[in-house]
Design brief:
By secondary structure, the chain is mainly α. It is elongated and about 35 Å long. The two termini are 13 Å apart. It contains 3 helices and no strands.
């Protein structure tokens, strides 16, 4: 799996989990969704993503967006 796909999958899981937690427990969980969205916008503009660094250290192959 490439870093790009891993980052997208992680962001998707975070959004789905936070939406479920926000619906069933507390609307404050929607802040994770907002953070994930802001981080994706920031990463698209700068090319830097904290999750990409972690996935690179774990051993994922380089992708197109994150190397």
């Amino acid at each position: 799996m490439t870093i790009d796909k891993a980052v997208l999958m992680f962001a998707g899981f975070m959004v789905l989990i936070s939406v479920a937690l926000g619906y069933y427990y507390s609307p404050y969980w929607f802040l994770i969704t907002a953070f994930a969205g802001l981080n994706m916008v920031q990463a698209s503009l700068t090319g830097w993503c904290p999750a990409a660094i972690v996935f690179k250290k774990v051993g994922c192959k380089s992708g197109v967006a994150f190397k």
